[in-house]
Amino acid sequence: MPGPAATLMIEDALQAMVRKDGMVGCKYEKSKGLIPMGTHSCFGDFPSDYLPEGVKSKLKAAQRARTALLPRISKSNSDPGLTLNSKIQGFSWNPHLPPDSPPHAGARKRQMVPSSPFRDFYDRRDLPISILHGSVAGKITWKVDLERLDYHHFLPIFFEGLREKEDPYRFLAVTGTYDMLARGGPKILPVVPQLIIPMKTAFNTKDPTIICTVLKVLQTLVLSGDMIGEALVPYYRQILPTFALYIGKNKNLGHLMDYAQRKRLNLGELIHETLEILEAHGGEDAFINIKYMIPTYESCAKA
């Protein structure tokens, strides 16, 4: 059975074969400015004078795509951005809409994935991990004993890497996070406050693949030690808003069967599972705090 990181790699390869339009994969998302471009080589970026013309045009196109994702305000009616002249065009993002049409809220629109510190640490060889080549299921090797590892320093860095979509960064971050949670024991609880910002940043990308990855890690985090679920209750307002956006994102197949359910990529079901785990291990105040953030959630505890 492949691990979580290997499952993501297999799913990417499957989507590349199924989708013949080429609108999947890291190369396509880089061209659209959704994920970081990365460096030109393992030694860094080349000087601009030595770049081929084809590479220059790709970099410029990616920069324009990233700029187009940013909201902008225009004072002219000819610009498709947000206009200030509400009497003529209203607050319309699309010039082809009627004059008084409101803009799309864009609550579920994918955002740019910011570059993670994990990528920088790995490029500088500051992380005590390396890929174990030749492994069938995909493994990493640790250069130090996990029991002697400084969790206050390394665990937040690995959580930052969960929003990576390019290998080997994603493979190392996901596999390393699960290894540290499996053998962390009592050293995980004091680090919980430092894990909130990395998870919130990953949720704010609005990328379903990244959200599913972080949800699975969050479930493992809650189950990895005592009192961790209760320690997360004060931070529900930071991590649960994205849950409310996607809690209804299910596959309505009727009488058909979802043969990909073993991959656990159904966002709605994964959110329900995570909320039930948070309620079961969050103590007596967990349900009321979840209900405050997600009014449609119903308790899984027996009356």
Topology, element by element:
Elements: H1 4-18, H2 26-31, H3 53-69, E1 73-74, E2 82-83, H4 117-123, E3 129-131, E4 140-142, H5 151-160, H6 169-184, H7 196-203, H8 208-223, H9 228-231, H10 236-239, H11 241-246, H12 267-281, H13 286-293
Parallel strand pairs: 1-2
Antiparallel strand pairs: 3-4
Helix pairs in contact: 1-6, 5-6, 5-7, 6-8, 8-12
Fold and architecture overview:
The radius of gyration is 22 Å and the shape is globular. It has helices at residues 4-18, 26-31, 53-69, 117-123, 151-160, 169-184, 196-203, 208-223, 228-231, 236-239, 241-246, 267-281, 286-293; strands spanning 73-74, 82-83, 129-131, 140-142. The model is unreliable at 73-92 (pLDDT under 50). By secondary structure, it is mainly α. The two termini are 38 Å apart. Helix 6 packs parallel to helix 8 (208-223) and helix 8 (208-223) runs parallel beside helix 12 (267-281). Strands 1-2 form a two-stranded parallel ribbon. Strands 3-4 form a two-stranded antiparallel ribbon. The protein has 13 helices and four strands.
What keywords describe this structure?
single chain; 303 residues; mainly alpha; two-stranded antiparallel ribbon; 13 helices; 4 strands
Brief summary:
The protein has helices at 4-18, 26-31, 53-69, 117-123, 151-160, 169-184, 196-203, 208-223, 228-231, 236-239, 241-246, 267-281, 286-293; strands spanning 73-74, 82-83, 129-131, 140-142. By secondary structure, the protein is mainly alpha-helical.
